[in-house]
């Protein structure tokens, strides 16, 4: 039997995709960009909190936590810091939660969430 010549690849080609820096799609105080999220955040905060937590596969009441905001920000490479996340959640909880939900909705529509 004749042996067929085979090329042996010793080194596999490498592909590295550097993740591009992301950004929040709306500002912290851009409530008018999605009035339904804003109204839900103002008048039914617990409902919005649970929606965000469900979207992030977390416990129902953890949606407005600093940990969830930091997890989301780092997952999508959004610049910021834990201190900034803490300040947003501590002093402007409804606005920070609305911003997070608007961003989730935007990424969901694009199919990148």
How are the SSEs ordered, and which strands pair?
Blueprint: H1 35-43, H2 45-55, H3 66-75, H4 82-91, H5 93-110
Commentary on this structure:
The chain is an all-alpha fold. It has a domain at 35-110. Helix content is 51%, strand content 0%. The protein contains 5 helices and no strands. Helix 3 (66-75) crosses helix 4. It starts with 34 loop residues before the first helix and ends with a helix. Belongs to the cornifelin family. InterPro entries: PLAC_motif_containing. This is PLAC8 protein.
Count of DSSP H/I helices = 5
Instruction: Give a short account of the largest sheet.
Output: none
**Percentage of β-strand residues:** under 5%
Mean pLDDT across the residues is 88
Report the radius of gyration as a whole number of Å.
21 Å
Care to count the β-strands? 0
Short description:
The chain is an all-alpha fold.
Quickly list its features:
single chain; 113 residues; mainly alpha; 5 helices; elongated
